[in-house]
Amino acid sequence: MDELEELVNTDSYGKAVEGWADTTWNTITEIASTPALYQELLAVVGVCIFAYVTGRLLRHYFHNLREDPSIEYLSGRWFAMRAGRLIPPLIILGLLSLTNVFGENIFTSGVFINIANKLAVLWLIWICLQAFVSNVFILSVASWILLPAAGLALFGLYSEATEWLDALGFSVGEVRISALTVIKAILFATFLIWAANLLSLRGVSYIRGRSTLNSSTRELLVKTFQIILYAIVFVLTLDLIGIDLTALAVFGGALGVGLGFGLQKIASNFISGIILLMERSVRIGNLVELDQSAFGFLRKLGARASIVETYDGQEIMIPNEDFITSRVINWTYSNNQARVHVEFGVSYATEDLRFVADLAKKAAAAYPGTAKTPEPTCFLANFGESSVDFILMFWIDYVKEGRYAAKSAVMFTLWDLLKEHNIEIPFPQRDLHIRSGLDWPESLTKGSKISNKEE
Question: Is residue 343 included in any domain, yes or no?
Fold first, then answer.
């Protein structure tokens, strides 16, 4: 800490800035006593007025141009919408440059023209950032780091500023971290992340557009591509800011162990997602069921969790680890067929039970979604207390269309067929036979006598 305070409290950089300010002020006060100052101010004001008027007229032209249907490409319209904002600083920069070159005999000093010229450059950079950078994070970093750096470079203070920022720092082992290092890291990381996002979008779009690959292979390639890409960005950022990677080996190992214990669930879900993609036990679009907790279509296999959309429209986020450790039913793993069960019963008064089984199979075959093979089957399941119980089994071709719809349609048809042939579907009932000669409780006898007297 004493070393840090000594670096911060050194007067060399402060004296350099103070000397530059004194020199500039002396120059300004010296020029202020000459008529050349007023000529330069008049020239700068005239250039700004001309740029403002001309910019207003040309911006109106560009505003109409962006609505021109002859511009077919979206890139042309996009540029036309933003180019009008660049006109005033470009005009000021161009006219001041010409004035500085051809007006040496008129403007003896040219100090204020040079200052105005540099300010016009900074204004042009700011307008370009506002017009062509849509990412808010990149715009903020450029506004707070790139623009001040450009201003320092234009006014000749860049080297002094970087030396002063480099002095504000501390060391961790063999690694030195300074304010300049942090600023460089933010700047380089911003640019590299932006470039990585752009490459990621293009790469992901290219991989997912390969119809020759199945969906699981495409998702695996996408994840691998993104991991490698952002790992390269991280290493390049450390290398560009001058941090020796070998010096961070011990620190990185300790950090890795700590993250391993703290983020083991995230790592487990990530590895589980890769396993699912490699073994292809579940794929995008499969109809899955997890321990009766979720039943629906797998819509996305993410790095941490997968999304299952139920028939109710709910989107459930399920950790990838659950697909490995839990019991998962994949209804569409190898085919789209599924078997549907319909249980029903008929009265004991029914004479021909085999005919009932034939009617049930006929009802199942009448449903349009019933598979031709295997054919519907009906079994006599049980002799119940009040009915003879049957179970009808039939296969449907597309389980994604729903089993309940098929079951409901077949039950309606079966109801109509049984009614048509006067076959009764019984409901639970009990027949009570009261035998005479029993000793009735005295309370029941008294109650019957009272009711008779009231009548």
Answer: yes
- In the beta sheet, which residues pair with residue 295? 289
Q: How many helices (H) and strands (E) does the chain have?
A: 17, 10
Q: What is the pLDDT of residues 321-370, one digit of tens each?
A: 888 888 888 888 888 899 999 999 999 989 899 999 999 999 999 999 99
Instruction: Find out whether 167 and 7 touch, Cβ atoms under 8 Å.
Output: yes
Rounded to whole angstroms, the Cα distance separating 377 from 117 reads: 91
Where does a domain end: 155, 184, 203?
A: 155
Interatomic CA distance for residues 397 and 374, integer angstroms: 11
Q: Residue 370: in which H helix or E strand, if any?
A: none
Nearest to 418 by CA among 353, 349, 342, 359: 359
Longest dimension (CA), the chain: 143
Q: What is the pTM of this model?
A: 0.46
User: Is the pLDDT reported for residue 107 higher than 60?
Assistant: no
Count how many domains the chain has.
Answer: 3
Q: Does residue 345 share a domain with residue 326?
A: no
d(CA 120, CA 90): 8
Is cis: bond before 368, omega within 30 of 0? no
What is the torsional sign of CA 418, 420, 426, 432? negative
SS3 content of the chain, % helix, strand, coil (to 5): 60, 15, 25
Residues 31 and 51 in one domain: yes
What is the C-alpha separation between 183 and 242, in angstroms, rounded?
12
Picking from 26, 232, 53, the residue whose alpha carbon sits closest to that of residue 109 is 26
pLDDT value at 108 more than 70: no
Instruction: Kindly give the pairing relationship between strand 315-319 and strand 328-330.
Output: unpaired
The total number of residues written for the chain in this structure: 455
Query: Which structure tokens are listed for 47?
Result: 């250039």
Query: Same domain for 303 and 395?
Result: no
Q: How many CA atoms lie within 13 A of 2 on its CB side?
A: 0
Q: Which of 155, 173, 201 corresponds to the end of one domain?
A: 155
